[in-house]
Design brief:
The complex is a heterodimer of chains A (297) and B (214). By secondary structure, chain A is an all-alpha fold. Chain A has a single domain, classed as ABC transporter involved in vitamin B12 uptake, BtuC (Orthogonal Bundle), CATH 1.10.3470.10. Chain A is 80% helix and 0% strand. Chain A is built from 14 helices and no strands. The two termini of chain B are 30 Å apart. The chains are: A mainly alpha (297), B alpha/beta (214). Chains A and B meet through helix 9 and helix 10 of A and strand 4, helix 2, helix 3 and helix 5 of B.
Chain lengths: 297, 214
């Protein structure tokens, strides 16, 4: 029991715990749409593109959230408009831009003293260093982003599943796409302090990808995703405390471990279940011709 | 009324349907439904897309898909209620998918998936239904259920516009036909418009017309 209670005697651990729980809920929710829409690469681009914003506010002595929000929103809008015009190959254009932004951040930072140490905490996050204000800001952002996502869940679902029908029903599909990118961007920005620029994508993509394996219903997937993300965050935090490892990276590895367990054990989509179904299918193959319902291609 | 839209690949069948559906904006001219610009009546047009345009990995059940047809009437920030779910199940049953509402959409055959989308069009309470190549890869049994549903629409006074390659289908089951090859070649009642001459003009050398010896 003291394994759990002892770390929490430190205020910095209490704040870190609150932060990972909020971030877990937020990333678990928003990440579902990142996974289902295939936005992982765009998410990674956003995470890197906010870096100069982070560095500039850091150099100016402001909260890193401030600059990150500005750069994050600009990049989200840029990507949204770019993907609409379709004149440039979207992938390459995003690749070029985010690498350039990231390099810009490193160059600005390299002009400062104490370069290595600063770079480390910005790239890999510093969950143990979050202030009470940071926790409050994260909470408020999570409530806003989560509220918008759940409030427009119907519309986001429709545009993700069948964009043609969404447009024909008169929904503002482009505006909804942009809004979704802004929500992803805001999520990335507030989560930066937990795991940093490089690993943030793991927190957004891994729990929902694991949750998708567990269920075929969106509502259950979102609940499972939130649960797995919070679990990974909390478990990773405690492990990192006792094992004296980097907190952000330990959280990411915990999430990866959860994902691998799901890959093997998931009831319908897991490796065990599919190989069992294949074996059974071979055994009962002759039933397939008599059963009208099984027209599955 | 059931109208067939025929023409070779690239003749603009899909584009015309999507313009009517409000997916594409016409570069010139305007589209009106019942005297009003189509944009204002968007919720009265039900569009059944081609299979490739849908994200089949998305975690939705057949009932979820049908309920999407109710979203517009339900409105922003609200969820479909019991009555909406009842209508969704009723539409699924009408299309021969009774009791399958809880299955994931990828667990159906191609023909059954088309039927789910037709059920979605039903619950939209449309004035106009647009079907983009609905008969592609559909077997005889699915075709029968499909015809039944299309006749239901027609009987309820709902117009159905079907883009298709299936000329035999057009000749046998549709009231009117529009021949399209980047421009409108002919439009009128099937008996008068579905003629060897019009088909040759529409399809060029791509179609062989066998005239019955009288």
């Amino acid at each position: 029991m003291s394994w759990l209670t002892e770390p929490l005697e430190y205020p910095f651990m209490q704040r870190a715990l609150m932060e990972v729980v909020i971030i877990g809920v937020l990333c678990g929710l928003v990440g579902c749409f990142v996974v289902l829409r295939g936005l992982a690469f765009i998410g990674d681009a956003l995470a890197h593109a906010v870096f100069p914003g982070v560095v500039l506010s850091y150099v100016a002595g402001r909260s890193i959230l401030f600059g990150a929000f500005i750069f994050g929103s600009l990049t989200a809008l840029g990507i949204g408009i770019l993907s609409r015009s379709r004149r440039v190959s979207e992938d390459s254009a995003i690749g070029v831009i985010f690498a350039a932004f990231f390099a810009l951040g490193v160059v600005i930072l390299s002009r400062q003293g104490g370069f290595r140490q600063d770079l480390g905490s910005l790239l890999f996050g510093n969950i143990l260093g979050v202030s009470t204000t940071d926790v409050w800001v994260t909470l408020v952002v999570a409530l806003i982003v989560g509220g918008i996502l759940l409030g427009l869940l119907k519309e986001f679902t429709l545009t993700a599943f069948d964009p043609t029908m969404a447009r024909s029903a008169g929904y503002p599909v482009f505006a909804l796409d942009l809004l979704l990118l802004l929500l992803v961007s805001a999520t990335i920005v507030v989560s930066l302090q937990t795991v940093g620029n490089i690993l943030i994508l793991a927190l957004i993509v891994t729990p929902p990808a694991a949750a998708r394996l567990l269920t075929d219903r969106l509502s259950y997937m979102m609940m499972a995703s939130v649960g797995l993300a919070v679990f990974s965050g909390v478990a990773g935090l405690f492990v990192s405390y006792h094992a004296a490892t980097a907190a952000g990276a330990t959280i990411v590895l915990t999430a990866t471990g959860v994902f691998l367990v799901c890959v093997v054990l998931a009831p319908n989509h897991g490796l065990l279940a599919t190989s069992r179904a294949r074996r059974r299918g071979r055994h009962h193959a002759h039933h397939f011709h008599t059963n009208e319902e099984i027209e599955v291609s | 009324m059931v109208v067939g839209l025929i023409g070779p690949n690239g003749s603009g069948k899909s584009t015309l349907l999507k313009a009517i559906a409000g997916v594409h904006t016409p570069s010139a001219g305007s589209i009106r439904l019942g005297g009003k610009p189509i944009r204002e009546s968007a919720s009265h047009v039900a569009f059944v897309p081609q299979r490739e345009e849908v994200n089949w990995d998305f975690p939705v059940t057949a009932r979820d898909v049908v309920l999407m047809g109710r979203y517009r009437s339900v409105g922003w920030l609200r969820w479909p209620g019991r009555e909406d779910r009842r209508r969704a199940d009723e539409a699924l049953a009408r299309l021969g998918l009774e009791g399958m509402g809880d299955r994931h959409i990828s667990q159906f055959s191609g023909g059954q998936q088309q039927r789910v989308f037709l059920a979605r069009a039903m619950v939209q309470d449309p004035e106009l239904v647009l079907l983009d190549e609905p008969f592609t890869g559909i077997d005889v049994k699915n075709r029968e259920v499909f015809h039944g549903a299309i006749q239901d629409f027609a009987r309820a006074g709902i117009s159905v516009l079907i883009a298709t390659h299936d000329l035999a289908e057009v000749q046998a089951t549709m009231d009117m036909v529009m021949c399209l090859n980047r421009r409108m070649v002919a439009f009128g009642p099937t008996a008068e418009t579905f003629t060897p001459g019009n088909l040759r003009t529409t399809f060029g050398g791509q179609v062989a017309v066998f005239e019955a010896a009288s």
